[in-house]
Amino acid sequence: MSFLHLSFYSSFILSTLGLAFHRTHLISALLCLESMMLSIYVALSSWPIENQMTTFTMMPMLTLTFSACEAGTGLAMLVASTRTYGSDHLHNLNLLQC
Fold it and tell me: For 43-89, how does the pLDDT look when each residue is reduced to its tens digit (9 = 90+)?
């Protein structure tokens, strides 16, 4: 395994662990999700270059598009929860109260 693959895997695993263990604020969960998407984007961008394949060159753009949609939705949820509850703590968000 090359150093490049090790860095992709470790950044994705560290982001997943951050999402699993630091679930206090919504903004920290969103940052962990964005770092996961960034590591996936960089890995998908370097994969066609390493294998000299031009068929998978559209995948990083699709991943980046979905990441932008996810970021916009997450920020909208952050603004809505901050206006409603006064903070971005995740323990305030309970889906059973709806």
Answer: 888 887 777 777 777 888 898 899 999 999 999 988 988 888 888 88
Domain spans, the chain: 2-92
The burial class, CB within 10 Å (0-12 / 13-18 / 19+), for 26 is buried
Model's pTM, two decimal places?
A: 0.80
- Determine the CATH number of domain 2-92: 1.10.287.3510
In DSSP notation, the chain reads --HHHHHHHHHHHHHHHHHHH--SBHHHHHHHHHHHHHHHHHHHHHHHHHHT-STTTTHHHHHHHHHHHHHHHHHHHHHHHHHHHSS-BGGG--GGG-
